[in-house]
Amino acid sequence: MKTIHHLAEERGSADYGWLKPNYYFSFSGYHDPKKVHFGLLRVLNDDFIMGGGMFPPHPHDNMEIVTIPLTGSIEHRDNTGGHGIIKAGDIQIMSAGSGIVHSEANASKTEPLTLFQIWVFPKLRNITPRYDQRTFNVEDRNNKWQIVVSPKEEDAALWINQEARFSLAKMDAGSSIDYTNGFSGNGVYLVVISGNAEVNDIKLKKRDALGIWECDQFSVTANEATELLAIEVPMGL
């Protein structure tokens, strides 16, 4: 097993007034040559968006973009006719494919919104752009992994154009769960959404991340009530 520990306090950050992002990887005005990507995971932004805040229409292509609201709701619109409001407990995915223009806005004029936005390089380039969203039962992730994004039909998750898998878990203090790769040889970028946990005696606090590769299974132990996100991706660009 190989690992890389990214501390929450060592992430990049910015303050645009209405938007306060934290960057796990180089993005926008933040660049760290040691943090450009983890395998095919290119972007993981932890965003705080004020009430009424909005990303105006902007283009993307050939990227799989997953949005996970943590608090509040976000409204999406795109030039293919895609439209939706997603809230905490929902997951959104957009295949930018051959090209798409979309906007994202805090659905509330007064309440703040927090979310993860994640970009993964696609398996097939220039596919027809697509948008999808789903509400998941958060109780189905208690002390176990709930798969929310996957190309495998049997995972009953949002489809992604890549051999990648996103899973969420809510762990009780003192509990342990194993993670087993959906695709042998993939790496896993494990993010502590809240609480603290450890993997192989590596202690992880809130918003820390641990990249794990050359290992198809590992165990996580929660030291207190903890929420986790596991992003499994191929490691070769």
Per the principal axes of the C-alpha atoms, what is the gross shape? Answer: globular
Whole-number average pLDDT? Answer: 97
Task: Report the uncertain regions.
Answer: none
| Number of contiguous helices | 0
Whole-number total of structural domains? 2
Kindly state the percentage of residues in helix: under 10%
Beta-strand content = over 45%
Number of strands: 21
Which sheet architecture does the biggest sheet show? 7 strands, antiparallel
The structure class reads mainly beta
CATH architecture of the largest domain: Sandwich
What is the alpha-carbon Rg in Å?
A: 17 Å
Order of helices and strands: EEEEEEEEEEEEEEEEEEEEE
Name the CATH superfamily classification of the largest domain: Jelly Rolls
